[in-house]
Structure formats: C-alpha cells, structure tokens
Amino acid sequence: MYEHFYGLSGKPFSLLPDPDFLFDSKRHRMAINLLDYGMMTQAGFVVITGEVGTGKTTIIRRFLKTVADDVTVGVISNSSKGLGKLLGWVSMAFELDHRGRDQIKLYNAFVNFLLEQYGLGKRTVLIIDEAQNLNADALEELRMLSNVNNERDQLLQIVLVGQPELVETLRRPELRQFVQRIAVHCHLDPLSAEETAKYIRHRLAVVDGKPDLFDDDACIAVHYFSSGIPRLINQLCDVAMVYGFSDEAPKIDFSIIYEVAASRESMGLTPFRPLPADVTKDGLRATLGNGNAEPAPATPPAPSDAPQTRPNVSSRRTMSSSPR
Questions:
Q1: How far apart are the C-alpha atoms of 63 and 56, rounded to whole Å?
Q2: Which of 60, 199, 278, 303 is the most buried (most CB within 10 A)?
Q3: CA–CA separation, 106 vs 88, rounded Å?
Q4: Cβ atoms of residues 213 and 256 within 8 Å
Q5: Does 275 have pLDDT greater than 50?
Q6: In angstroms, how far is the first alpha carbon of the chain from the final one?
Q7: How many Cα atoms sit within 13 Å of 223 on the Cβ side?
Q8: Rounded CA gap, 193 and 285, in Å?
Q9: Residue 263's domain spans which residues?
Q10: Residue 96 and residue 200 in one domain
Q11: Same domain, yes or no: 174 and 283
C-alpha cells in the first residue's frame, strides 16, 4: 500500500521473523555470538531468553540460515504444556519414524540416529522454541537425552529459546543438575531509545528507504509507546506508515505516532504503553524531547472561565515440527 508512495522496495516493518532484517544491537549481537560459541565448543545446553517480541525467534532463524553443512538441525517450533511424551516430538523434528513405537524403541532409534550422524562427521542440534511451556519432567527428559555422548564429543546439543518463565522453571531445586549443564545463557533486553532509532532506520535501509523517513521525535515516541520491544516497534511503525500514506505526509512525525497509539488505546485492545494521564500531546512531545522517559503530569491551570483543553486522542528450514 504505502511502499510505492515512500519509494520502498518492500515492507520494512513486517512482523515475520525475517533474519535479513536482524538488527545488530549490542544484546542481539551478544546472543548471536554466544549461540555460535556454544555450537563451536559443543555446549550441551544453550539457553536464550527474553520477553515476548524481543527477537529470539529471529536470532534462531538467522542461525538456521547460516548453519554449516556438517550440522543436522531439528526444530520444535511451538512447544506447549500439552506436548506429551517429548521423544515423539524430537523424533518428528528429525523426521524419524515414531509411529507405533514405545518410549524405549524411540530412545534406541534416536541414539542410533545420533551415532549415524556422528559417523558421517555431523553434529546434531535440537532447537526448542517457546521452551517456557516445558514442564520439569520434559526438561529432565532433555537432560537425560543430553547424556548420549562419547568420551570426546557431544553427540547432541540442545538450544532452548523461551520467555523469562523458563528461567523460573529452571530455578526449581529438582532441576539443579540441568542448570549445571547450561554452558551459555543470554537474555534479550528491550532496545534503548537510541537503539530504537537505529533499529527503525536499519529496517528502512534494507528496503531502500530514506533514513529520515521517521524524524527524531517520531523515533522517540515509538520507543516510548513500544517500550523498546522490536515486535511492537514494527507494529507501531507499520501502521504509522499507513496513516502517513493516507495523509500524503512526506515523513512520519510525532503526531502520527501519537495518533496511532491513541487510536489503538481508544478501541480498548492496545499492545502499546498507555497514554500518560493528564499530559497533553504537546506536553508529551516536549518531555520526551528533553530526554525524560517519564512525563510529568500537567500542572493544573489556575481557575479560569476559559474552556479547558484536553489531550488530542483523534483517530487509524532444516527440519521442523510444530505441534498444533
């Protein structure tokens, strides 16, 4: 819709976890380097955590896109509390026949698979996304699987990707042996205001967009309303460009970002930070422009017969298995 109007070669703010758009923030770069290091050093377990929308899946997609030919990867992309016996799903992730086999036969078949891959000079990596949904029993089953190795090499490496609840589960006393097997853990934090602006301009550059399409005040507002969560940044910026296109605005400014956030809030289903109470749009712009993260409430005016003004809130690969 708006791509031609703004001279773009594609959508810059798609919600899909496209590794071509991966932004090299300090924390994301650290996560990538730690993941690569864990793979190189044959770490038994690598854990990547972060809040919803911080880019965990995008990092995994980047790994899958760049993984070497001597690595066999299986992915369980959507684990759930109702996952059931884990070995069946692991077998599906590596396209092993699991039908009609009990747990012992599944285990023996999987061990034979690992030994076969090792004999071919390949490393085997299992990635489990949404791992916060795994219970203690499933995690203990994974630990037992990780025991399959020889005297020199780790036959199976496991990457767990999940929300902070995964850490809470791993802190349980009965999982202390599991925690000792975790060689690498990285937590993805939200982006700072400066990183948010760089993130926006990076994604625009990927699709040949002008770096100043979003002005400085707009970037600050995006960070405020998204709290630096990449998924929310994408959602807010994408809709803002629709608004800008509708208004034939040459650039996206603070007012457009504010209007998108206010409109979503007024409809009752907003993922964004709420509008600050008792602060006008201009007051919020001034406060954020001065580098303050938290706007102060507006000073009550002196009694007057003049009508009071109100805030403007106008309206707009690699194998995988995925449980359903």
A1: 11
A2: 199
A3: 7
A4: no
A5: yes
A6: 33
A7: 24
A8: 14
A9: 193-289
A10: no
A11: no
- Cα angle for residues 237, 309, 250 (degrees, 5° grid): 30
Q: pLDDT digits over 32-87, tens only?
A: 999 989 888 888 899 999 999 999 988 998 899 888 899 999 999 876 655 557 88
10 Å Cβ neighbour count for 33?
Answer: 12
Q: Kindly state whether residue 55 falls inside one of the protein's structural domains.
A: yes
45, 51, 54, 60 alpha-carbon torsion, rounded to 10°: 20
Shared domain for 147 and 256, answered yes or no, is no
Cβ proximity of 211 and 205 under 8 Å = yes
Question: Would the pLDDT of 172 be above 60?
Answer: yes
Query: Which tokens hold the place of 43?
Result: 């770490």
Helix (H) or strand (E) holding 216: helix 216-226
188, 217, 236 — which closes off a domain?
188
Residue pLDDT, tens place only, 158-168:
999 999 999 99
Burial of 21 (0-12, 13-18, 19+ CB in 10 A): buried
Among 137, 163, 188, which residue terminates a domain? 188
Check residue 220 and give its pLDDT: 96
- Domain count along the chain: 2
State whether 171 and 110 are in the same domain.
yes
Q: Which two tokens stand for residue 219?
A: 């970037």
Pair 204, 252 in one domain: yes
Burial status of residue 280 (CB atoms within 10 A of its CB: 0-12, 13-18, 19 or more): middle
For 224-273, the pLDDT digits (tens) are 999 999 999 999 999 999 999 999 999 999 999 999 999 999 999 999 99
Same domain, 37 and 165: yes
